[in-house]
Amino acid sequence: MKAKVIVTGGCGYIGSHTVIELIENNFEVVIVDDLSNSSKKSLSRIEQITSVLLQFEEVNLADEQQAYAVIKKHKDAKAVIHFAAHKAVGESVEKPLMYYQNNLFSLINLLSALQENTISNFIFSSSATV
Q: Which one is the CATH code of 4-129: 1.10.357.10, 3.40.50.720, 3.10.340.11, 3.10.20.740?
């Protein structure tokens, strides 16, 4: 049985490449993305490359109920890789509350849901550090 990994922001550039690598290394992957900085087109590209039908959940992790529901649905996951953060410096200065809401609330909601569902393997990554 394949180990399940949830990839938040899995339709974005770094997330989609990570999803491909996970699939190619025999992991079951669930993509969680709100599509605010990405497109569903990524899903078909990943499926073309890997020949795997993807599990996709369109979820805004800043919404506590959505975050808890998706983690509860996939509580058999062994790990979560979190790429779902906004990263544009200029936009963050113009819209700081939007960035706080997404980057902090989504992280807090996700970590709380993981703790409640006893998923302890968590990787946080942000292209904002590149």
A: 3.40.50.720
